[in-house]
Amino acid sequence: VVLAPATPFGLVVGLAISESEMPAWLGQVGSFAVFAGAAQLTMVTLAGVSAWWAVVLAAMVINLRHVMYSVAVAPAFTRQPAWMRFIAPTVLIDQQFALVSQRLDHDPAAFRTYYLWAGGTLLVGWQLMTLAGIVVGPAIPTDWRLGFAPAVMFCGLVVIGVKDAANAVAAIVGLTVGLVAIDLRDRLG
Which is nearest to 56 in space by CA: 79, 33, 72, 77? Predict the structure, then answer.
């Protein structure tokens, strides 16, 4: 269940790596080093066509949401050992945040176990999906490629987070605005 939303996105990132000028081995290493799908996809698609500083800046801007994630989960980490506070940010991605933000008040040891298992599962799964995308990506039909995967992943995250009517209304409003704004020029939607 944890990997379901990330699976198509990992395959698409692997496909983008296989279609880019980047050597496949470097793309796979980048998948481990960056471990943030949207930033990695941006880096892969901009590499070779943009200045290195523009690629890095774009990835950093995309990952600014992780600062908000960190602030939101910080109270749970005040009760964690230093080693946990040191390694935990490496796996604080969208899916991880969606999962652990619902368990912030758990016993520190139980929270730590859950966090590490979920994060480890996501990290290993992402590496496997990226590698699969590199290997089998060229066989994926053209009309299934880059456009759909981020939407599928974030829809999966929204479904996990809907707990009451207010959440459902917010999700429906977001969907409606997204659909209405999808065709705005310059990708303003």
Answer: 33
